[in-house]
Structure formats: structure tokens, C-alpha cells
Amino acid sequence: MVKSVTVFCASSTKADKVYQQSAFDLGCILANAQIKCYYGGGRVGLMGELAKAMVERHAEIEGIIPQFMVDEGWDNPDVHEIVVDDMQSRKKMLITFPDAIVALPGGCGTLEELMEAITSRQLGIITAPIVIVNINEYFTPLINMLNNAISANFMRLEHKKLWVEVNKVEDVLSAINAAPKLENARGIAAM
After folding, report:
1. Sheet of 61-66: strands edge to edge?
2. pTM as predicted
3. Is 154 exposed, middle or buried (0-12, 13-18, 19+ CB in 10 A)?
4. What pLDDT digit, counting tens, does each position of 141-185 carry?
5. Which residue, 31, 67, 24, is CA-closest to 49?
6. Neighbour count for residue 152 (Cβ, 10 Å)
7. Where are the domains of the chain?
8. CA 168 distance to own-chain centroid
9. Mean pLDDT in the chain?
10. What is the pLDDT of residue 101?
11. With contact defined as beta carbons under 8 Å apart, do 133 and 104 qualify?
12. Most C-beta atoms within 10 A of its C-beta, which of 30, 38, 98, 114?
């Protein structure tokens, strides 16, 4: 049973409304399922919408944010915060704390977090299922690149089990529950 989820997503306020609405909807879904949410701690963009949905429903949400972002005023005063020293500490907590990881569309930070989560699962550092929400085919180029890495033998075919792709947030919880278990991740980490 999933009790907590990390959500990687953007802080951009200029992203299309469909992405922001999806973040809000995911927050509603997690809140209604009484699933705790960890996220990057921002108050605007997709992060802000996710947090708003959780806070409005009195659900448990925790922002993990570096001190320099707090100093800049980028944090969200409506959520409980864990303030860390740097981005590396933030990422480690976001990846290792939850029972599952969900990636919504985002920029470099989101992509970096997602790739580190996939790598951590590949190496057996984490076992949390990873769900990529491919709204409007946003992640299709990345998924094609991962498949290309498999085709070129930089990854194994079994590595396709490291993530699950869905097209809408309404499918996230069922995807988490149906995600393949990796019994011996380290055994398939190397070629």
C-alpha cells in the first residue's frame, strides 16, 4: 500500500494551463487517497498548483527546499518545509523518502530528478515505482531516448521495468500499484 509519493514538477508559471491543471488534479487525487506528498517546496507553477490542491483538502504535503531558495522567497509558506543545505540533499530526500515517485512535465530540474530516480532504481538504491505522466506527449522524446539506449545496448531490455508511463494523472495510482517489482535490480544493472 502506497502511503507517500514524491512528485517532480516545474515551478514555471508560463507552462500551458493543461500542465498546471494536471498538477492540481494530481494533488486532489493524492489528497483523496490520503497519500502524503513530498515535492520541491515551491509555491508557483505546477508545484504551486499541486500544493494548493493538497492544502485545500487538508492533506499532508511536505516541501523539501534548499536554504538559498528560501532566502530568495521561492518557498511555500502554506506547507511544512524541510530546509536543506543544497540541491543534492534535496534530491536525495525526494528520491529516498517516498513509496513511489511521479514525474509531471518540467524543465532541467525535473528531468535531472527523474533521471537520478531511474538510475537509483536501476542500481537497487531505491525500490519505489516511478511513474512518468506523459501529458501531451511531453516526455516522448525522453522515453524514445531511453528506448534508444536499450536498442544500442547501453541499457538492458529489463530496464524498461524501471518506469511506467501514463498519459493522464487519473492513471497514476493504478500505475503505481501495477508497476513491476524489481527483485534483483543490481543483478540487471550492468550488462
Report:
1. 80-84, 61-66, 36-39, 4-8, 100-103, 130-133, 164-166
2. 0.94
3. exposed
4. 999 999 999 999 999 999 999 999 999 999 999 999 999 887 666
5. 24
6. 8
7. 4-188
8. 14
9. 94
10. 98
11. yes
12. 30
183: enclosing H helix or E strand: none
3-state SS record for 18-84: HHHHHHHHHHHHHHHCCCEEEECCECCHHHHHHHHHHHHCCCCEEEEEEHHHHHCCCECCCCEEEEE
The residue with cell 513491476 is 180
d(CA 132, CA 15) in angstroms, rounded, equals: 18
Return the residue matching grid coordinates 492544502. 55
- Which residue is it, cell 509519493? 5
Give the number of other Cβ atoms within 10 Å of residue 164's Cβ: 21
Q: Architecture of domain 4-188 in CATH?
A: 3-Layer(aba) Sandwich (3.40)
Give the phi and the psi of residue 34 in degrees, each rounded to 5.
55, 45
DSSP 6: E
> Which residue type does 97 have?
F
